[in-house]
Amino acid sequence: MKQICITIVLILTFVYVNAQTMPDTAGKKITYVVEQSAEFPGGIERFYNYIGKRLEIREVEQLIGVVGKVKVSFVVDTTGHLTDVKALSNIGCGCEEEVVHILNTCVQWKAAMQNSRPVRQKLSIPLTFNFPRTNISMAELRKGADGYLFRIKGTIYSIDQAAGILGETFPFEKVEIATLYTEDDKYGLEAKSQIYLVNIKS
């Protein structure tokens, strides 16, 4: 993966329900409406920067671009640690997984307070992603954690074969779409995290 500078529109919203507390699957009470909400150290702007600095964008996202909203929920426990981090959306390209990973390893928050005592609070966060498409070389694709195959005029080629046809660099405008490749023949890419099939426009 390659870390790049991106712009993320982030809005932190609290999940409100009729009851003030509800049990989670483990039987522990989660508070939704509190006197003092849980807070990231330094406030929302620092949380925005924290996520933005840690997002690593996969090469496939650079190839096809990603525009959409990722929504995740999590619980801030009484010690300020994040638990039960879950993705509530699916825009693909590993965006949800990346955000969930960042939150699972997030620094300690200031716990929510109710009646002068720390309580567990559930929050949800929508993140608007806007990753523009960019040119990327075959060398960068080879180095990445994911593997790539190319469909050119109906035929599937390995990355080296595709480089012989398209060149070691090619404009992103030639890419129609990239989808997960799930066939049994892995073209020697078994060690890669995921394999993507890049469809080239005719």
Automatic annotation (TrEMBL):
Work out whether the entry's keyword set contains Signal. yes
* Signal sequence interval, chain numbering: 1-19
Q: Which SUPFAM superfamilies match?
A: TolA/TonB C-terminal domain
Keywords, ordered alphabetically: Signal
Query: Ranges for the TonB C-terminal domain?
Result: 64-130
What processes does the entry annotate via GO biological process terms?
transmembrane transport
Transmembrane parts of this sequence = none
Q: Which InterPro entries does UniProt cross-reference here?
A: TonB_C
| Database matches in Pfam families | TonB_C
Supply the name of the protein: Energy transducer TonB
